[in-house]
C-alpha cells in the first residue's frame, strides 16, 4: 500500500467547484474581492486546488478562477 499516494488522494478530494470569470477590465479587477467574499461566506470550506485560466482574442481578455473545494458533509439530525 502506498501511504503517500493515499494521503495525497485524500487531501486533494473535493466535493464542490466554483468558477469566477470576467471579460471586461472592471470585472477582472473585482475578481479577487468576489473570491474573497465567497470564501468568507462559509469559513468551513476547505480549498483543495485553484486554477487560474486566461484566454483572449483580438478584442477581449477573459480570466477565470476555478476553485475546487471540500465542504464538510452535514449529518442529518
* Whole-number tally of structural domains: 1
Query: Which class best fits the helix and strand makeup?
Result: alpha+beta
What is the element string, with H for helices and E for strands? HEHEE
Relative helix content? 25-40%
Short descriptors:
2 helices, alpha+beta, Cell Cycle, Chain A, elongated, 77 residues, 3-stranded antiparallel β-sheet, single chain
Give a nutshell description of this structure.
This protein has 77 residues and is an alpha+beta fold. It has two helices and three strands, in the order αβαββ.
What is the element layout, followed by pairings?
Elements: H1 3-12, E1 16-22, H2 25-40, E2 46-56, E3 61-70
Antiparallel strand pairs: 1-3, 2-3
Give a structural overview:
- By secondary structure, the chain is of the alpha+beta class.
- The chain has one domain (3-70): Cell Cycle, Chain A.
- The protein has 2 helices and 3 strands.
- The chain has helices at residues 3-12, 25-40, and strands at 16-22, 46-56, 61-70.
- It has a 3-stranded antiparallel β-sheet, with helices on one face.
- It is elongated.
- It starts with a helix and ends in a 7-residue tail after the last strand.
Amino acid at each position: 500500500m502506498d501511504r503517500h499516494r493515499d494521503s495525497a488522494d485524500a487531501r486533494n478530494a473535493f466535493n464542490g467547484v466554483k468558477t469566477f470569470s470576467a471579460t471586461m477590465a472592471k470585472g477582472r479587477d473585482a475578481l479577487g474581492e468576489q473570491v474573497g467574499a465567497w470564501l468568507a461566506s462559509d469559513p468551513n470550506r476547505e480549498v483543495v486546488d485553484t486554477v487560474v485560466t486566461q484566454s483572449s482574442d483580438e478584442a477581449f481578455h477573459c480570466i477565470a478562477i476555478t476553485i475546487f473545494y471540500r465542504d464538510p458533509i452535514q449529518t442529518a439530525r
